Amino acid sequence: MKTIIHIAEAFGGGIIEFILQIVKNQPGYRHIIIYGKRGVDIDAVRKQFPENAGFVEWPFAQREVHPIMDWKAFRSLRRIVKKIQREHSVQAIHLHSSKAGFLGRFALRGVVPGQRLIYTPHGLAFARQDVSKTMRLFYVLLEWVAAAYAGRVIGFYRNFTQETLNNFIVKNYS
Q: 151-160 burial by CB neighbour count: b if 16+ within 10 A, else e?
């Protein structure tokens, strides 16, 4: 069966619902969800999904920037995806959340053809108001660098295009 991999560091709330809708509306595909565990009852989440969905925990994935943990998350993500590719016919990889989008675009370079890589930020890190202006500028820099490795970027909320264009980030978006 053809497979779509979903990667989400911030696996909770709206991202769960977003991925659930994709899975329900594409029953002809196997969906493997690689998730960062952040206080979510994964057993309760699994019960919401149909049988064509599988789950793989993403070790070391966490919200904040932490070079050592991020390096470990980068390496574990690359290993997980390579293992899945050996076992399944992967058609696309869909990155959800800023951290998954950043690490995924680099970790999967050379592993996944760019046209099969989709990035949907469910909130841009540089738009956060709970961090300093310096940190927001740092997030803009990270997104700008990662944009060179993006396959397809899909924005689904009202200010997405303007926020990314204002910061010279998106080159290929829907």
A: bbbebeeeeb
32 half-sphere exposure, CB direction, 13 A CA radius:
23
Give residue-wise pLDDT tens across range 109-168: 888 776 688 888 766 665 667 778 887 788 777 777 777 766 666 666 555 555 554 544
pTM: 0.82
Ordered domains of the chain (ranges, CATH): 2-166 (3.40.50.2000)
* Cα separation values, 129 from 84, 136, 137, 142, Å: 37, 8, 12, 17
- Rg (alpha carbons) of the chain, rounded to whole number: 15
Task: Please give the average per-residue pLDDT across 31-43, as a whole number.
Answer: 91
Query: In which region does residue 121 sit, left (phi positive, over 0), alpha (psi from -120 to 50) or beta (all else)?
Result: beta
d(CA 50, CA 10): 21
Model pLDDT, residue 122? 67
